[in-house]
Amino acid sequence: MAQIPVKVLRRKQEALDIASFELARPDGGALPAFSAGSHIDVQVPGGLTRQYSLCNDAAENHRYRIAVLRDANSRGGSAAMHEALKEGDTLLISEPRNHFPLVHAQRTLLFAGGIGVTPLLAMAQRLATSGADFTLHYSTRSAERTAFRDEIGASAYADRVRFHFDDGEAAQKLDLAAELGAPQPGTHLYVCGPTGFIDFVVKTAQGLGWPQEQVHLEYFGAAPQDTTGDRAFQVKIASSGAVYDIPADQTVVHALQEHGIEILTSCEQGVCGTCITRVLQGECDHRDLYFTDEEKAANDQFTPCCSRAKSPLLVLDL
């Protein structure tokens, strides 16, 4: 994938533990076009690659804006962005990709949990520009942790946004069942945020009879996996016939890397789909949040950054 050098034009503290970064080409040239819901890969200081959603207006081509939550349990990415990246610095990013696109709908309901507001902010901007019928519900722990609150309040769509604070009065808290109601054919739901928040929204919608095709989601991170029962297995490389052992305490990506076989990764949590690899033989133990249940059942591809094998051997199309 093509890499684009960009400069940090502006860094701004948007809320407690959340900073935004405005990125542009050093020469001021146009950046590749993107659509609401898109993300970019960012090579963060220290050599890691992480994905961040674009949260500026998709009509803009002179800049990209991302926002990063400093995670107390950071694996290095968010800490590096907060501690090492400053205005004037340069870094490499990918072209935008969109696994979370808006579809045409009579009505759109957006549910953001914390930093999950970033792709939904771009969606709200797009929907408002097109005159669409939508509502954005933005849930956070407290007002001081609510990024872009003033920006939203000053926007043309401010009356379409409902804020919900965990530490606020009961009357302003999210009554999800009431907001969702019975599903309507022309209404689509989008949700992004922590795993628990997404599961809450999706399961409530399912309980109310919402069809799967009208519910769209994007995870920002995977829940911790219970690895106590993990066992070793083997992987065979179809092109060479070589067979490698995958220890119980090591991922397929890292085990193969030790033998000089590189698989492109980004999130390393089974969220982004960057590392998807075709499976020619064997049974997968899917642990990702990327594939649908139907795609997992097909058993013809998996995410080697986190998924494993139920069978003794997996044959990979590498």
From TrEMBL:
Source species of the chain: Ramlibacter pallidus
Cofactor(s), by name: FMN
Record protein name field: Oxidoreductase
Domain FAD-binding FR-type: 1-103
Coiled-coil annotated spans: none
Entry annotated with the keyword Lyase: no
Pfam families in the cross-refs: DmmA-like_N, Fer2
Residue ranges constituting the 2Fe-2S ferredoxin-type domain according to the UniProt record: 233-318
Gene3D superfamilies (alphabetical): 3.10.20.30, Nucleotide-binding domain of ferredoxin-NADP reductase (FNR) module, Translation factors
Biological classification of the source: Bacteria, Pseudomonadati, Pseudomonadota, Betaproteobacteria, Burkholderiales
Keyword Amino-acid biosynthesis: no
Keyword terms of this UniProt record: 2Fe-2S, Flavoprotein, FMN, Iron, Iron-sulfur, Metal-binding, Oxidoreductase
